[in-house]
Amino acid sequence: MSRQALFKRRYRRDEEAIPFLLNGLPEIGRRGDTVMTAILSLGSSLRRTEFTGENRAGFCLIGACQDCFVMTADGSRVRACSTALKPGMAFFTTTMERVEHD
Ligand code: FES
Q1: What is the Å distance from ligand 1's center to 36 Cα?
Q2: The pLDDT value given to residue 35
Q3: What is the pLDDT of residues 30-80, one digit of tens each?
Q4: Domains of the chain from N-terminus onward
Q5: Would you call 61 exposed, middle or buried from its count of C-beta atoms within 10 A (0-12, 13-18, 19+)?
Q6: Which pLDDT band holds residue 4 (cuts at 50, 70, 90)?
Q7: Distance CA 46, CA 35 (A)
Q8: Is the CB of 97 under 6 A from ligand 1?
Q9: When you count CB atoms within 10 A of the terminal residue's CB, does the N or C end of the chain come out lower?
Q10: Residue 17 Cβ < 6 Å to ligand 1
Q11: What Rg, from alpha-carbon coordinates, does the chain have?
């Protein structure tokens, strides 16, 4: 598995910080992020598919394919590409390896 973040944040790097939990650890997204943007700016996948175990990171990015579901702390799931990140949200991935950015 790659240790690279899939998304590189190039804009809005100084926007308001939006705190959230990822795999029980505190993380920071930025105002305007989707759940997908926030998570894939930190790592390479959203989850593993329950069928083959492959890493998944979305496909269509427009809310149509349902490939980007991510588990929440309460056991529900959200469509990461079309869900706005809000303070206090909590997600679990099974594949995430956090990487550091400059
Ligand atoms: S990536 Fe297709 S619905 Fe989110």
Answers
A1: 9
A2: 97
A3: 999 999 999 999 999 999 888 888 899 999 999 999 999 999 988 899 999
A4: 18-92 (3.10.20.740)
A5: middle
A6: confident
A7: 10
A8: no
A9: C
A10: no
A11: 12
